[in-house]
Amino acid sequence: MKPVNFDYARPKDVADVLPLIADDSRTVKIMAGGQSLGPMLNMRLVQPDLVVDITGIEELRQVEETADAIIIGGCITHADIEDRRVPDVTRGALPAVAGGIAYRAVRNRGTIGGSITHADPSADWISILSALGATVTLRGPGGSRSVAVEDYMLGALEADLQPGEMLVSVTVPKLGASARWGYYKSCRKTGEFAHAIGAFLVDPERGVSRAVFGATESRPIIVPDARRLLGEGAARGSNGDFDSRLAGELVEAGGMSDPIDRQIHVVALRRAIQQAGSA
Amino acid sequence: MAAQGVTDRKADGQGVGASLLRKEDDRLLRGRGQFVADIRLPGMKDVAFARSPLAHARVNGVRVPEALRDRVVIAEDLKDVKPIRAVSGLAGFKPSDQPVLAFEKVRQVGELLAMCVADTRAEAEDMVEAVELDLEELPAVHDMLAARKPGSALLHEEWGDNVFLETFVDVNFEAALDAPIKVTREISTARQSMAPMEGRGTVAVWDNRMEQLVLYTGSQMPHIVRTGLAECLGLGQHQIRIVSPDVGGGFGYKGILLPEDICLSWYAMRCGHPVRWIEDRREHLTAGANCREHHYIITGYADRDGRLLGIDCEATVDSGAYSSYPFSACLEAAQVASILPGPYDFPSYRCRTWSVATNKCPILPYRGVARTGVCYAMELVMDAIAREAGLEPHEVRLKNLVRPEQMPFDNITKKHFDSGDYPEALRRAMAAVDLPAIRARQEAGEPDGRLIGVGHAIYCEQGAHGTSVYAGWGIPMVPGHEQATARMTPDGGLELRVGVHSHGQSMETTLPQIAHEILGIDVARIKLVHGDTEYTPYSTGSWGSRCAVMAGGAVATASREIAKLAKGIGAHLLQAKPDQVDLVDGRVVGPSGSVSLAEIAHTWYRLPQNLPEGVDPRGLEATIGHKPVRDSGTFSYAAHVAVVAVDPEMGDIEILDYIIVEDGGKLINPMVVDGQIYGGLAQGIGTALYEEMNFDASGQPLASTFADYLLPGPTEVPAPRLDHMETLAPYTEFGVKGIGEGGAIAPPAAIGNAVNDALKGLGVELTQTPMTPRRVLEAIGKASNGAASVNAGAQGELV
Question: What is the superkingdom listed in this entry's lineage (chain A) (predicted)?
């Protein structure tokens, strides 16, 4: 398949993008890395009048470190993070997860902002960034606002974008010195979209113990206080303490009706927690 | 009869048996190959097809906007074009007519309804969207077992049922019924797409000067395509030239005549410019999932000591909507009956097969053809018998394999196994893994909680089977003598012209190796010409693991003729008698000296005044046909052993070790054979673990991209450990056997048996490919003692 005929713009700054995407007389798609949009265009699943390529915008390629967070421009690629061109404030979590996204060719072009906004439930960033407590910053005609990553994703392939808004950056909090994380995903082959993801963060200095069941049918299922899954050995997260029954109830309450789906999600989280425990 | 020719590598390392680097790789690895999609002809336009979105529907109309009408072809334009009709001579076969563009009915998703022509593919697709399809949906036939039952919707109403062909064989079956061990299994393999790297593609143009339709199309069998195309279009075969350039994988898919080819040809004859269709991956997956879907109910009968007494089987193959040209809709299922007994010797056999029409694309012979399914079914049953008898599976196999002293051996279905030591292949493969250590490891359990298992499979593969075999099938194509032309050039080089096509088989290297073996001409100076009906002798093409035996044999025969002709001229130049000279390393050597082939060629072509009166007027050119001494086929064979780890919580399967011991007779180029085995193994792993095209109840294919249709990648295919035996074939040149397909045959069986070995403690047996994580977990969940699964939910279904 080949795309429909469309116009193409490659503006130099965000201010030039906003009027283009505010024009509701035509269908406009933002292209960040194009790794999902490209195939969707070719298969004519999207038939835009205009594609706005934002990879030429310097601001979106910036990274800024503050006292307690790092702010990553929306067009930073997975490979930028994998290769640590972006400073790591997550004790290795972001580079490790980045290195497992799809294939290197995809990582060279695919962007963090594009991935989150595409909102594929199986994608890695949504799950790990939700576990890390990251937020996204959006800019639109009315100015800027910030939203937690897990709230930004409204459902499968649906992000909380108001008309004329775009994602400009992702803010990831710095982890404490004793923080530990774990991430486990189930794929049938290297680079395939995940069938189940477990993500876990324990950060005693900041009082965080957070777990995520990812690669669901829709939004990730967040366990804001994961200590309840771990019982007495909460911080260590040892295998014996993991409450599989409770975990199963949580994913079932999260809408997962298929017992095999529940099983692999529960096991994925348990393994993520084990990984954190052994870190 | 002993193998002719050589058994040792020539001293210069270029002849038969040398692992010469591939000549074709110089262009292919530098990106200089020329595939159909690389061809640019002046004025060429692109084609997109309006395809049926429904699996089964009545066609009430195909409406084309008036402004586009002259650039859109619909069925009513093609009234003079014959449908594709591939009959079989087997009794009871019901033929189908596959229209070039559908009218009256569509019978599969993706069936062609209109062809749109534009400057670019994108614009052609815009036109497709403007074509209005008026289709009235009919109940889809998507399940081959249900399709066999009375009351099913019918694809071809005039048949009265959905069965292309039913076959039945019974050899003394009653005698097996009292056997003490009787195991019955329901076994199935999923429908697959062949998924070559390069899809189909065709450029068609009418050449006014030659008064000829020229079709550039990636084809395994250019001459057969020409014949089929001429018959559909009503052209003389001299009016069609088929050029098959570089081809990115065939596997059977590029062996058939496509309606697309006919439609483009018809248009090219009228429009005054070239037209091109390049299949995209979506078309390939949704309209071309055309292989492997088998279903077996199979019972093995055996003694308590594991001696096989009989096999009883009902096999059903989903043949899809039409009988495809030239292999027909029934090759696969009917072949099941004849090859199911595998490499075993047993006394009683019964098999009934059905080739069933469904609303899917026509089935094609994919690498290994029916053998991959057959091997999976038979080898799972052998393991089930072993478990029932309380024996190691390899011990049971060793008791039942045809023994070397029985060779040549006519098996229960009259297959003539030519040579080999099947038990030795299995013993060698088993020796490569430390079975007691694996058993001890299983006993102890793995630290990571996974379960390991070892499994094996053995098969023999009929290749290069010829006239006597195919005449019996009665399909449009029966191979006879395979011809080759050998022609010396004036500077002492050699051209070889063959009607088979090389698209991964490495024949641009291996056929020159054969000529070199006989003539001593440097392989670098031997040019293989193939893939063009204008320049090559008629051939049924590349299929059935036949090229090394048939085209190789033809090249050897033609080269020997060149040797004879050259010796005649050389003897004259040396003032000797022809029987006083010999051809040694590219020189004709006589009692008083020697003369090179280059000098002889120079004399023939450029100094004919120096030739004697009465010189053989054929010069230094020969076209000769070849058949093996016996044309019932070569039987290569291999034992595969897989060691796997199964994650009982996630259902993931990892291949820890993979061993292949194969016997292809004399190997022309062992490196090339290894390459064939690696590629086949990757496809076999795809069948075993990944590849599956599901259809819903309305006949819709459920995968349209490689995100949903999984192929194994580099990280999923282990580096196998290969070992070769070289039992010469008794009937072929050099003792060569066909090995092209074997790698794809045994992996589902070996991996399946390994998985079942790993899971036997849970009482779990998987009998369906691909063995997906979900199927593993479902099987564990169903087993009563599925203690390894975790509690995952309030209702605790998986406790």
Answer: Bacteria
List the single residue in B with minimal CA-CA distance to A3: B122
Domain region containing A154? 62-173
> Top-level CATH class of B25-33+481-626?
alpha beta
**Per the structure, how many domains does chain A have?**
3
Q: What ranges make up the beta strands (E) of chain A?
A: 7-9, 28-31, 50-53, 63-65, 69-73, 135-140, 143-148, 153-155, 158-159, 166-173, 180-186, 196-203, 208-214, 221-223
pLDDT tens figures, B614-631? 999 999 999 999 999 999
**Which of A43, A251, A263 has its CB closest to that of B790?**
A263
Per-residue pLDDT at B790: 44
CB-CB neighbors (< 8 A) of A44 in chain B:
125
B396 sits in which H/E element = helix B393-400
Rounded Cα gap, residues B103 and B52, in angstroms:
11
Report pLDDT digits (tens) over B157-213.
Answer: 999 999 999 999 999 999 999 999 999 999 999 999 999 999 999 999 999 999 999
B125 reaches A (C-beta below 8 A): yes
Q: What is the pTM of this model?
A: 0.96
B130 within 8 A of B68, measured Cβ to Cβ: yes
Tell me which residue in A192, A195, A244 faces B792 most closely, judged by beta carbons: A244
- The answer to whether residues A236 and A200 touch, using CB atoms and an 8 Å cutoff, is no
Which CATH architecture group holds B294-467+630-782? 2-Layer Sandwich (3.30)
Flag whether A1 is in a domain.
Answer: no
- Interface predicted TM-score (ipTM) over 0.85: yes
Q: Is residue A57 in some structural domain?
A: no
- CA A239 – CA A272 distance, rounded (Å): 10
Residue B650 touches partner A, C-beta closer than 8 Å:
yes
Question: How far is the CA of B500 from the CAs of A211, A249, B62, B252, B667, in angstroms?
Answer: 60, 62, 40, 13, 19
Q: For A7-33, write each residue's pLDDT tens digit.
A: 999 999 999 999 999 998 999 999 999
CB contact under 8 A, A188 and B121: no
Q: Is residue A32 part of a domain?
A: yes
- Strands, DSSP E only, in B269-346? 275-278, 294-302, 308-318
Residue of B705, B777, B793 with shortest CB distance to A249: B793
Substitution target in A4, A157, A188 with the highest count of B β-carbons within 10 Å is: A188
CB < 8 Å to B772, chain A: 188
pLDDT of A231 reads: 72
Query: Which residues from B are below 8 Å from A244, CB to CB?
Result: 790-792
Q: Does B716 touch chain A (CB under 8 A)?
A: yes
